[in-house]
Task: inverse folding
């Protein structure tokens, strides 16, 4: 009888075990271990959003008990956090018709009717948003093993554009208030705090049964950084140091079979990243093109955290549809949690 080849050991889930001088190897090990390519067929465009099915939505709808709706969006205005990195600016809102025009009767409408119109110009990832599957590549590979240049061109994401998710992202949401759990006095993690699997699991245990994670759930991780910026000013919120998920959580994100995850920070993962040599968003490189995980960033989780803590339950119906912008690799959203 032929012996089966020994399996590679699973990558460590302890940040202390990371080779801080070798991000390439640490990323590659997790990409290989948790890759979902082909799991939903070679034509798949949704990745882990496939875990949301009709039964999951029915389950989620049953969580609405109080009829309380909470918006999880930051404001979309010129007072946002962006500072121009990679041409990301804050939204610019311009009126094209105003009440002044109506008062002066220069709009050309009959019988005294007047109106107002406006236009907005903004990068699609300048405030509360989803990262689509075409947003990040791994060594020139996009989600499901496609070549990046075959997926995203100057015409947009020709394969996994965000429009495919327009009617998909309605599911059970679960808030993990890691900031409140680990720092009960302030409710806020320090910048640079790497959230581990142990942190996530201890938070779930402390919050109780309503925060147990299941297939198709959308997990929201509150670090408290957004609340801190609203008190102290944006500072380096966009691109600077932040609490966030450790690279070592990649296995947890894979095996829990969650549909998506979002945080209240600019970049989802801990910053600075966990290496002593140049590295940039290594967890993105694992989870988007390899796991097929949709990531949300810059969500405002403050009011939701207060509502959940008051009720002692941490799950809810979550609706977070992207705008169906053809070929977009991300989308602004106004997520709504209904308790």
Result:
């Amino acid at each position: 009888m032929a012996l089966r080849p020994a399996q590679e050991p699973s990558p460590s889930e302890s940040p202390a075990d990371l080779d801080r001088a070798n991000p390439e190897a640490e990323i590659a090990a997790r990409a290989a271990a948790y890759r979902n390519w082909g799991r939903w067929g070679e034509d798949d465009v949704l990745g882990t959003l496939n875990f949301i099915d009709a039964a999951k939505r029915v389950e989620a709808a049953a969580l609405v008990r109080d009829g309380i709706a909470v918006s999880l969006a930051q404001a979309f205005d010129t007072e946002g956090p962006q500072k121009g990195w990679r041409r990301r600016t804050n939204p610019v809102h311009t009126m094209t018709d105003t009440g002044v025009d109506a008062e002066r009767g220069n709009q050309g409408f009959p019988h005294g009717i007047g109106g107002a119109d406006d236009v907005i110009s903004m990068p699609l990832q300048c405030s509360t948003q989803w990262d689509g599957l075409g947003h990040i590549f791994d060594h020139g590979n996009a989600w499901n093993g496609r070549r990046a240049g075959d997926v995203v061109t100057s015409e947009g994401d020709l394969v996994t554009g965000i429009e495919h998710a327009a009617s998909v992202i309605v599911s059970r949401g679960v808030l993990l208030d890691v900031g409140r759990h680990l720092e009960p006095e302030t409710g806020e993690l320090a910048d640079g705090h790497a959230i581990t699997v142990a942190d996530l699991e201890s938070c779930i245990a402390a919050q109780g049964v309503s925060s147990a994670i299941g297939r198709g759930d959308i997990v929201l991780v509150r670090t408290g950084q957004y609340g801190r910026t609203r008190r102290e000013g944006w500072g380096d919120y966009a691109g600077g140091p932040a609490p966030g998920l450790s690279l070592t959580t990649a296995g947890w994100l894979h095996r829990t079979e969650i549909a998506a995850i979002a945080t209240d920070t600019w970049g989802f993962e801990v910053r600075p990243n966990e290496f002593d040599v140049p590295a940039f968003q290594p967890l993105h490189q694992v989870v988007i093109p390899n796991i097929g995980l949709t990531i949300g960033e810059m969500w405002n989780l403050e009011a939701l955290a207060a509502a959940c803590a008051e009720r002692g339950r941490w799950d809810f119906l979550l609706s977070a549809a992207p705008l169906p912008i053809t070929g977009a690799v991300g989308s602004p959203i106004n997520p709504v949690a209904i308790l």
